[in-house]
Amino acid sequence: MGDKLRPYLEYQADRVEAVLSAHRAPSRVTGGTVGPRLIRFFLNPAPHIRFAAIKRLADDLALALRVPNLDIGRGREGVVVTFPNPEPQEVRLLSLLEEVGPAPVATAVLGLTEDGAPLLARLPAPEVVHILIAGTTGSGKSALLRTIGASLVLTNRPDVLRLVCIDPKGRAFAGLRDVPHLARPPVSEPAEIREALQSLVRTMEVRDQRGERQPPLAVLIDELAELVFTGGDGVSEALTRLAQRGREAGIHLIAATQRPSAAILSGLMRANFPLRLVGKVVSATDARVAAGRGGTNAHLLNGRGDFVAVSGGEAPIRFQVAYIEEESFRRIGREAAGAGNQRRMR
Length: 346
Ligand SMILES: Nc1ncnc2c1ncn2[C@@H]1O[C@H](COP(=O)(O)OP(=O)(O)OP(=O)(O)O)[C@@H](O)[C@H]1O
Ligand SMILES: [Mg+2]
Description:
Blueprint: H1 5-22, E1 27-34, E2 38-45, H2 51-55, H3 58-65, E3 71-75, E4 78-84, H4 93-100, E5 107-113, E6 118-122, E7 131-134, H5 141-155, E8 162-166, H6 190-210, E9 217-221, H7 224-245, E10 251-257, H8 267-271, E11 275-278, H9 284-291, E12 306-311, E13 317-321, H10 326-339
Parallel strand pairs: 7-10, 7-11, 8-9, 9-10
Antiparallel strand pairs: 1-2, 2-4, 3-4, 5-6, 5-13, 11-12, 12-13
Helix pairs in contact: 1-3, 5-10, 6-7
The structure holds adenosine-5'-triphosphate and magnesium ion (MG).
Adenosine-5'-triphosphate binds near residues 135, 140, 142, 304 and 323.
């Protein structure tokens, strides 16, 4: 913990107690956690105080603490007050990978949860299968796709995991151009994209017939909405089929878009993404569209890699995306290409 942070935490804890007491909701701050981006205080309210009475005071607490946003929720630890860390720490993919150690095949490292635990996504797990990433511009979607791509490449040999990279803007995956995991070079032109998706559908059908699902094939897609919009029916249809039936063939879509709205993505396609990773969105309505359900508070996220993972009816998990700079990303791509990925790179 930074030296400046300790007096700050004490001061803020005193403020929280003072505000709650002044509003007749006396509570004690009994503990908390300091995460890379977020600080959490655990509150123990006096027995007669209702949770709703505390929750109503979120705006007053934010004002008193002089923080841009503040969330009050219920957790295992009781009432939890969450606000931004004034000394945010970077979460770096390469150091997180070292910490995590060996992971199962086709498992992507996403970042660190609020509790400081690494968050992983094992693609073949039924709760994962396909991942839809959503969030406004600057929320960190492309960076998250890079993190997923880099972590898959670094922890899986090219014979146990194959990658396909699709990006209409042609920027996001440039660093992976030469890695041996690629089933084909990254595609960005509309005609190429259509062809790549149709070829994936054929692969799926062949694998289906043979009852094959190995090796897992991860399809990274940036700017999904643009792709569907400009690619027309062929693209939309291929994506829908892959989302519906890819799982049995070991084909996994990992797609990012600003807003997965019904206007662009068919209900059928959206319904087949069990895991949603949602970054900052601009409104509560957008949060619902992005997460496919309410109650995630994605409009209160801070941007730049502050995300929630939403899967089924489970409580959303807030996490900070592990970051890999473009420079290291390109270096990894080059090293992987050179070494045939026989050794673990850093
Ligand atoms: N996990 C992260 N940690 C630190 N900084 C991040 C992280 N993710 C993104 N950023 C910062 O935010 C900027 C925008 O991120 P990114 O390009 O991924 O956003 P985006 O959601 O893809 O936006 P757009 O919709 O415009 O493509 C990055 O250039 C980087 O500076
Ligand atoms: Mg982007």
